[in-house]
Amino acid sequence: MNYQHSFFNPTSVNRRKFLKYGSLTLGSTILAACTNSQLATNISSAPASGKLDKITFGTSWYAQAEHGGFYQAVAKGIYQEHGLDVTIKMGGPQVNRTQLLMGGVTDFTMGYSADLLSSIESGIPVVGVAAIFQKDPQGLLAHPNQGIASLADLRGKPIFVSTIANTTFWPFLKAKYGFTDNQKRPYNFNPGPFLVDKQSAQQGYVTSEPYVIQQEGKFEPVVLLLADFGYQPYTSILQTRRVLVEKNPDLVQRFVDASIKGWYSYLNDPAPANALIKKDNPEMSDDLLTFGLSKLKQYEIVTGGDAKTMGIEAMTEARWRSFFDDMAKAGIYKTSTRYGDAFILDFTNKGASAYTSA
């Protein structure tokens, strides 16, 4: 379950985990093989040489439906068709994705508007090249029959949130809905405290936590997707080092194109990817995979918004600017931050037919 964002902190990664990941990918020759080719504008294909470029992609959490398109691109040979040999490495609560990316341990990773902007503000040269989720799956969950139908109804009630909420959605809730810090209760990714307090709410991805609550609490929670109430960041963004974009845009384009095709394929027939997901994460059940995919579709997490006309993983400058302005007003970012350095639009926005008709 995709519970939290990981911001860059050089001291925060468990050394044993870092060495474990590092041994898998250090020595990669990707950057050494970089060229100064121009940015690609068409759907990419495998290099004429037939040689596969090795890429390590770090996900945001343990393998789950929210990563299905990437696993599908592996399972169906889509990455190979684009000249790529992709290894997917799972994230987790102690995995700092930005540190692993900047250390060369991974070549691409899943990011969020919030942590990309924080990285730019801190001078870390990362960049988002495609947005998988048009809506953030983050929501607040409440007990039924308590008069909760909107976020405004939660004003003054106890809410279980993780510490990372302080720099993501909590300032938005305070600014727009009048939430106060004395409402906050520590959320340690255990629904127990929420289950016993009917007046409370808790954070959770709409693709996973409601399922857990149904199983453990034997009731269906009220689900309030923050994106439906004005919280509009991109999430699960494909991010990489800016130097890779500058020196090898063709490789970036091929990875983006193959990933997008993987997502279209997964939404149509998830079985190949799900088999690999369960192999990487044996604790993942068929029922939860089915639930997660159904919610991705129900809430149009992947296919909503600009993706309807511009294709999966679409991004726009206007959307980035709007989110940045909202968060800057809430005091999260300096108004002088160069928010435009957090993303590049050269690799997406080609329209769904470019990926589904090929």
Structure, explained:
The protein is built from 15 helices and ten strands. It is an alpha/beta fold and 358 residues long. The strands form two sheets. A five-stranded mixed beta sheet has the order 2-1-3-10-4, sandwiched between helices. Strands 7-6-8-5-9 form a five-stranded mixed beta sheet, with no helix packed on it. Helix 2 packs across helix 10 (249-268) and helix 2 crosses helix 11 (271-280). The protein is globular. The two termini are 32 Å apart.
Helix content: 25-40%
Give the total of beta strands: 10
Q: What do the pLDDT scores average to? A: 87
Q: Please mark out the parts with pLDDT under 50 across 5 or more consecutive residues, or reply none.
A: 2-42
Give the number of helices. 15
Q: What order do the strands of the largest sheet run in, or round the barrel if closed?
A: 2-1-3-10-4
Largest sheet: 5 strands, mixed
Radius of gyration: 20 Å
Global morphology: globular
